[in-house]
Amino acid sequence: MQVIKTVQEMQSYSLEQRARGRTVVLVPTMGYLHEGHASLLREGRKHADVLVMSLFVNPMQFGPQEDLAKYPRDFARDSRIAEDAGTDIIFFPGADQMYPGKFRTSVQVAEFSDVLCGKSRPGHFRGVTTVVAKLFNVVVPHRAIFGEKDFQQLVIIRQMVDDLNMPVEVMGMPIVREKDGLAMSSRNTYLSADERRSALSLSAGLFRALEAFRNGQHKSEELVNIVHAGILAAGLKTDYIEVIDETNLASLNEVTDTARLVAAVYAGSVRLIDNIALRKN
Ligand code: PAF
After folding, report:
1. Domain boundary among 173, 197, 225
2. For the segment 136-185, what is each residue's pLDDT rounded down to a tens digit?
3. Model's pTM, two decimal places?
4. Is the shortest distance between the CB of 129 and ligand 1 below 6 Å?
5. N or C: which terminus of the chain carries fewer CB neighbours within 10 A?
């Protein structure tokens, strides 16, 4: 496994590999890897001649009150996990490489970026789409793989790729959960033991709502209430709980074939997100 730190070296390397007919697959990350990332990398390995993992804690997607400075970082551990999962290249640029002084451009997907998480994190998705567009230009992948835990992010990136005719195939992979159901996230490390216990009410609520749906409850309000009751009982604060259409993030009153229950809550100061597809089986 090789570590590349400059934009120029990464881009030349990828273009050369592509010219030789090799398939380049990118898994973008902000590091502090867990099993969820490893599953994306293992999937990437299946499709790639060259598997690239980018590791960049992107300042542009953090708000002024958010946790950029204390975002967890451990390059040595990340390298081991990436190598075990079959990564060929870690692209590990500094902020000076990704955002040199003269940087003035951004990419924003209208409407989709302002709902759900976008309401309480203004500017967040503009930061995500800008850095992902840059990573696509630098790594020049044939395919890029993202997790469904950040479901809104996945929908927004697909829209950007469609709108801007980017020649990248975007692939979404299912959420990986701890044994007790908590969706894996680098931010879980911020949770105290008590918060970790309370946080379980989120995934538990989503699973209860899915069961209610499978037993015939199709009204979004009722399904949302099931999740909300568990969150309240556990002492967490709700940011949003909604049933949305997976194709356009629009709020739904009734479950349809493309419905997904999505939620964001606060356990203390830690913001947690999770979601579940509402399917009969
Ligand atoms: O999902 C993430 O870790 C980040 O938002 C991403 C896609 C790597 C962009 O910084």
Report:
1. 173
2. 999 999 999 999 999 999 999 999 999 999 999 999 999 999 999 999 99
3. 0.98
4. no
5. C
Within a domain: 179: no
In a domain, 181, yes or no: no
Nearest 5°: the CA angle 154, 111, 201 is 55
264 three-class SS:
strand
58 CB under 6 A from ligand 1? Answer: yes
Residue 153's nearest CA partner among 134, 177, 128 is 128
Q: Atom 5 in ligand 1: which residue has the minimum CA distance?
A: 128
- The DSSP H or E segment spanning 89 is strand 89-91
Q: Which residues are CB-contacts of 205 (< 8 A; sequence separation ≥ 6)? A: 226, 227, 228, 229, 230, 231, 263
Q: What is the CATH classification number for the domain harbouring 137?
A: 3.40.50.620
Please indicate whether residue 37 is annotated as part of the active site.
yes
Nearest protein Cα to ligand 1, atom 9: 128
Structural domain of residue 43, as residue ranges? 2-173
- In this structure, are 33 and 158 located in the same domain? yes
